[in-house]
Design brief:
Radius of gyration of chain A: 21 Å
Distance between the termini of chain A: 56 Å
Structural class of chain A: alpha/beta
Largest interface: A-B, 56 and 56 residues
Shape of chain A: globular
Organism (chains A, B): Discina gigas
Family (chains A, B): Belongs to the diphthine synthase family.
InterPro entries (chains A, B): 4pyrrol_Mease, 4pyrrol_Methylase_sf, 4pyrrole_Mease_sub1, 4pyrrole_Mease_sub2, Dphthn_synthase
Number of strands of chain A: 12
Protein name (chains A, B): diphthine methyl ester synthase
Order of helices and strands of chain A: EHEHEHEHEHEHEEHEHEEHEHH
GO molecular function, one term (chains A, B): diphthine methyl ester synthase activity
Strand order of the largest sheet of chain A: 3-2-4-1-5
Number of helices of chain A: 11
Oligomer: homodimer
Mean pLDDT of chain A: 91
Chain lengths: ~280, ~280
C-alpha cells in the first residue's frame, strides 16, 4: 500500500495521529521536497519518527517514481508531503500512475495553506480562484495572475496568492556543464509579491487593483510565530514579515464588517487601513 | 489559554499530535457540535483522549460562551471543532470575543472539506467561491447559491456546494410550547442537492448549469469508506451515496485532461460521462 500523508504546515507534531501510526510501521518513508518545504529539518522528523526518512527531490520522483511505486505493491510505503496530499499537481500524477499499476493508495489529509489561510480572518467561502506568483526576471514576467485576480475581484472575491520558492536550482552555466551544483534556496517575500503586482498593474492599467487595495501579508502560517500584516499593496511592498514561508491575500469587496474588525488588529497603520477600506469598499 | 483545535474530517485519530497533547493536558475539553459533525461518537473521543468531553451545542455557545472564555484566562481550555478552526463563522465570533476579553488564543489547524475536497481529483486553485445548499421547504427556497454558481461558471471555475445538516431542531409546535424536544438529525444527500439545483435552474432559466452539467458527489470524505460518484446533475439526482456527510462539486470549464482522466474512474456511467463532457467542454 502507498500512503500519501499530509504533514500540515509547520513542525513535526502537525502530523495526525493516524499519519504517525503509518509512518512508524511503514517499510520505507519518503519526504517529498520540491513543491513545498516544511519549516523544520529532515533530522528533526527522523528523530521524532524514530525512522530514517528518504528525501524525494524532483529528480528522484521524476526518474524513480516507478521504483517507489513498485515496492508499494508488496510493502507499505509512506510518501510524506507538506500540507495536504492534494495541494500540488504532482501528487495527482503519482496517484494516476499508481492507479495504472493497480497499486492501492490511501491518503491522509491535513491542513494546507488552502484552508488554513482562513486564519487571516476572511471567510473561506468568499475566496475565488488561487493564483501563483513567480520570481520575475529581466526577460520573463508571467502575468496570467493578473487576469485571474481581475476575474475574482470583478465578482467581489478575495484572492490567495501563493509565492514562488526556488529550491535546488542550477545556474545556467552549471546546468550547461552538467554540474550538480545548486544555488541557495530562495523564497519570495510578501514585499516582492506586492511590488510585482504593482508593476503589472502599472503596465496593464485595467484596474484589477490599485496601490490602495487592501491585502494581508501572511508569514509562517500555522507556526507559533506566524504573522499577519494588513495594509495597502503599497504598504505591503515595504513590509518585512521575517523568515519564509510567505503568502498574500488580496481583499475582494465581499467582506463583512466583523471580518474587517478582525483584520484591523493586524493593520500596519490603523488610520491608513481605515481610509483605504472606506475608499475601496465605501460605507454601505 | 484557549486552544481551538481542528479534529479533521473523520475519526478520533485525525487529530494532530500537537492537538492531542493539548487535549490531554487541558483543564476542560469542549466539543463544538452544531456547525458540523464528526463521524464518530463523543464516547469514542473520550475513550481515546482518556478525558471527559463536554458537548457545546448552539444553546451553550450562545448563552455561556463568556463562561467558557472566562475560565480560559486562568487555565487551559480546549475547544474542539470538526475540520479546521476557521471553517465556520461562529469560531471567528469566538475569537473576536476572546480578543475583547484579552484572552490568549492558539489555533491548531487540520484538514477540512475546503482543502480535502481536492481528493475528488480537481485542482483546488480552479475552485471559485463556495456555496451552501439548505433544505427547501414549501415556503422557503433560498436560491442565492444560483447566482454565485453562475459567477463561478462564467469564468470557468468549479464550485464546492456544502450541504445542509439539521441537528437539534425543534418542530414549530414544540418551539411554541417551549418544549425541548428535538427532531431526529437530517443530513442533505447529494441527490437532494442535485434535485434542488435542477429545480432552481428550471425556474430561473439563466443557464448557470443544465441537467447535463457534470458534477461529483462526495460522501464521508476522509474516511476509509469515502465515495465519489461523477455524473451529470440529472444522474446525481438519482444517485445513492450512502450515509452522511455528503458534498457536491459542480465542474467548471477550466479543467485539464489529466483531471478528467482521474475523475472518469468515478463515473456512474463512463459513456454518459464522456458524452456529457464533450457536449459541455468540447474537444479543444
Amino acid at each position: 500500500m502507498l500512503y500519501i500523508i499530509g504533514l500540515g504546515l509547520s513542525n513535526e507534531k502537525d502530523i495526525t495521529v493516524a499519519g504517525l501510526e503509518i509512518v512508524k510501521k511503514a517499510e520505507r518513508v519518503y519526504l517529498e521536497a520540491y513543491t513545498s518545504i516544511l519549516m523544520i529539518d529532515k533530522e528533526k522528523l527522523e528523530e521524532f519518527y524514530g525512522r530514517p526518512v528518504i528525501i524525494a527531490d524532483r529528480e528522484m520522483v521524476e526518474s524513480s517514481s516507478d521504483a517507489i511505486l513498485a515496492s508499494s505493491s508488496t510493502t507499505d510505503v509512506a510518501f510524506l508531503v507538506v500540507g495536504d496530499p492534494f495541494g500540488a499537481t504532482t501528487h495527482t500524477d503519482l496517484l494516476l500512475r499508481a492507479r495504472e499499476l493497480s497499486i492501492p493508495v490511501r491518503t491522509i489529509h491535513n491542513a494546507s495553506i488552502m484552508n488554513a489561510i482562513g486564519a487571516c480572518g476572511l471567510q473561506l467561502y468568499n475566496f475565488g480562484q488561487t493564483v501563483s506568483m513567480v520570481f520575475f526576471t529581466d526577460s520573463w514576467r508571467p502575468a496570467s495572475f493578473y487576469d485571474r485576480i481581475k476575474e475574482n475581484r470583478d465578482i467581489g472575491l478575495h484572492t490567495l496568492v501563493l509565492l514562488d520558492i526556488k529550491v535546488k536550482e542550477q545556474s545556467l552555466e552549471n546546468m550547461a556543464r552538467g554540474r550538480k551544483i545548486y544555488e541557495p534556496p530562495r523564497y519570495m517575500t510578501v514585499a516582492q509579491c506586492a511590488q510585482q503586482m504593482l508593476e503589472i498593474e502599472a503596465e496593464k492599467k485595467e484596474g484589477a487593483y490599485s496601490p490602495n487595495t487592501l491585502a494581508i501579508g501572511v508569514s509562517r502560517l500555522g507556526s507559533l510565530d506566524q504573522q499577519f500584516v494588513a495594509g495597502t499593496l503599497e504598504q505591503l511592498a515595504e513590509a518585512d514579515l521575517g523568515p519564509p514561508l510567505h503568502s498574500l491575500v488580496l481583499l475582494g469587496k465581499r467582506v463583512h464588517e466583523l471580518e474587517i474588525d478582525y483584520i484591523r488588529a493586524f493593520a500596519a497603520d490603523v488610520e491608513a487601513f481605515n481610509s483605504a477600506y472606506e475608499m475601496e469598499h465605501g460605507r454601505e
